[in-house]
Fold this sequence. Notes:
The chain is mostly helical and 95 residues long. 66% of the residues lie in helices and 0% in strands. Helix 1 (2-17) crosses helix 2 (35-46) and helix 2 (35-46) runs antiparallel to helix 3.
Amino acid sequence: MYFFFFFFFFFLALKILSYPENLPAMLNCAHGKDRTGLVSALVLACLGKTKEYIAADYARSQVGVWYSLAFKATTGDPTGISPTSLTMLFHCYKY
C-alpha cells in the first residue's frame, strides 16, 4: 500500500507538470531531498538531463538540511524554517 501511494504521487506530479497551462510551477518542501527531490529528478530525466546533472542538483539539497539544523539549534524552533524563508516562499506564491 505504501509503495502504491508514492507511485501514484509521482505519477500525479508528472501528469500535472506535463500540461503547459500548469507552468511555470514550483515544487517545494523543507529541503528537496525526499519526495520533492525525486519528483525533481524525474522531471529533469524527462527533460533529457544527464545522470551527473541530476545527481549534482539533488546534492544541493544538503545545504538546506545543514541550514535547517543550524536554525533549529540556534533558535529552538522545531520547524527549522526561518521567517526569511517563509517570506520568500509567500512572495513566490503571489505569482
